[in-house]
Amino acid sequence: MSGIRETILFSRATIFVALVAAATRAEEAVTLDGLADVFYLYNFNKPATGRGELRAYDGPHNCFHLNLAELSLEKRPAAGHRIGFRVDLDYGTTPRVNNAAEPAGMRRLQSAGQAYLSYLAPIGSGLRLDAGKFYTPIGNEVVRTSNNWNYSRSLLFTLAEPTYHAGIRASYTVNERVALSAHFVNGWNNVGDNNGAKSVGLQATLTPVPALSIVQTYVLRLRPGLARRSSRQVAGRSRLHSLSGQQPSCGELALGVVRRPQRLHERDTAKNQREHADRRVEGEKKLAAARRGSPRFVEPRGFPEEGHGARRSPGHADAGRHRRIYP
Hints:
Layout: H1 2-28, E1 31-41, E2 63-75, E3 83-91, H2 93-98, E4 112-121, E5 127-135, H3 155-160, E6 164-173, E7 178-185, E8 198-209, E9 212-223, E10 226-241, E11 249-258, H4 262-293
Antiparallel strand pairs: 1-2, 2-3, 3-4, 4-5, 5-6, 6-7, 7-8, 8-9, 9-10, 10-11
């Protein structure tokens, strides 16, 4: 009996080790995911423009649409292999709409819905760092239709929320009830930085009980030269409530755009006026220097000394001159 008992224990230990090894290999593996999102749109209002309006990803009326075809490759970082990545290859209406605000020349990146590298730093339970292009943490609705409660998107998603950011992101799980994250990015919906401003985002997720999660997100846009001042602030709170075995219900408590303080607006307006006046003075100086230094310089016809835009009569002595500014 002792031999049989030892054999059973040894077999159990072997099976346990095999399961642990299989789980470890599964964590290290690269996962492949994909979806195809196709829909037919018919607008009973028959709009004059021939297109659906207001909602994100709506297209021409009475037409089939390829909303999104996506293939995703992902390797999650873990304690045994701290480097990971994710790449979403997209095609269809969704990437074109999401990347419509990209600067010229950067829209070629619209085929990458997400593309980032990950590193799990050995700090506490593990500080995860992501760098690249990733979806926004703002709001309850997401880009993938299959992950939403409704097929169509709300006006809040369409008009008030970004879809992605480009920059760095850090996330840390304090315990099973508290998770924190922060990101430092170019702005909203732009891989190419087109204005020099940066955005900072903070997010806290509280899960007091398994059936309830409370998410607080705050995004602050920093203006160039004013690291402590903001020109756009967005605060969003969402509550996720789910029951086991049922579809989760979701309610957004608040999301708003805070306008800039009036004093900042007035100060920037005065600054722009001063810069415009300085450029005008500089231009007049260059024009005067050209007059003095070039004997071939001729006053442009239609811009006499008495003021910009004044017209000379056909009989004026300068009326037949050619318009030449510099030799």
